[in-house]
Amino acid sequence: MTIFSVRHVTSYRYFREVALGEHRVMFRPRDSFDQRLIDASLTIDPKPHRVRWIHDAFGNCVALVDIASSARELRFETRITLDHTPQLALDFQIDNAALTYPFSYDADEVPDLAPAIQRHYPDSNDEIGRWARQFVRCGQPTETGHLLMTLCYAISESFSYRRRLEHGTQTPVQTLSLRSGSCRDFALLMMEAVRSLGLAARFVTGYIYVADRDGSTTLGGGSTHAWCQVYLPGAGWTEFDPTNGIVGNRDLIRVAVARDPRQAVPLSGSYDGSLADFDGMTVQVNVTTQ
């Protein structure tokens, strides 16, 4: 059991005062058996006219922030404290019928899992599928856990991490071709690879604890993190972080889950002005232990 503290600051700057529209903030971690939210705060400057909380289609907590004023800078600061219990790969209890691949999901679960099994991105030559199937043993049983761990480690060890500041996510085919990408690119690649094998996968956004950045809430300039989950009978939704080769939730703080990365953007919004009015943004994330 570990107590994590997260400080996440995002600042938008403009060359002139612009009218700020509604913003959508997704920062509040999901309460579960492996992480319990102790405290969460959201500070916004300029002060918003109204903050309204909702649950989205996936049960994520979302704050809808109505700014209703003009400014040259918009700043969001979130502070989170939570109790985190690591779940390691050795702890997973997969049903006997799913211990080897291929296997079938329970008929009662298929309608709910279907959107997470369906592939979402064009792949006319089945490049992702062919790449994923190389990890399936020919002529002999393939252990499901070993298959997924090998796929996760293959991305971590064979692809080059590249922090991208551009909006959006590379397509899985692009990431496979470039052999490089950001954490969200790697998460999406693994999701589509898993889906090509007929398994259910979904996107996760949140934070990661890095030990050598601990001890300070001001130094460093980390960012949000992304990984994926795969649904395994008996084990449920299981974490796989292909950026760092992590299987299980060790050091991973789950904020939101979604069928596609576009549905789990941590912060989005609008302003009344031209593209030339935008002067840039800065993001700083610090995850520390108590």
Tell me about this structure.
Strands 1, 2, 3, 4, 5, 15 and 16 form a seven-stranded antiparallel beta sheet that branches. It is built from five helices and 16 strands. It is an alpha+beta fold and 290 residues long. The longest helix is centred in the middle third of the chain and has 15 residues, at 144-158. Strand 8 (160-161), helix 4 and strand 9 (180-181) form a beta-alpha-beta unit. Residues 216-221 have low confidence and may be disordered. The protein starts with a strand and ends with a strand. Helix 3 (144-158) runs antiparallel to helix 5 and helix 4 (172-178) packs across helix 5. It is globular.
Q: What's the structural blueprint in terms of helices and strands?
A:
Elements: E1 2-25, E2 35-45, E3 50-55, E4 61-66, E5 70-84, E6 100-101, H1 110-117, H2 127-133, E7 142-143, H3 144-158, E8 160-161, H4 172-178, E9 180-181, H5 183-196, E10 201-208, E11 225-232, E12 236-241, E13 246-247, E14 252-258, E15 267-272, E16 278-289
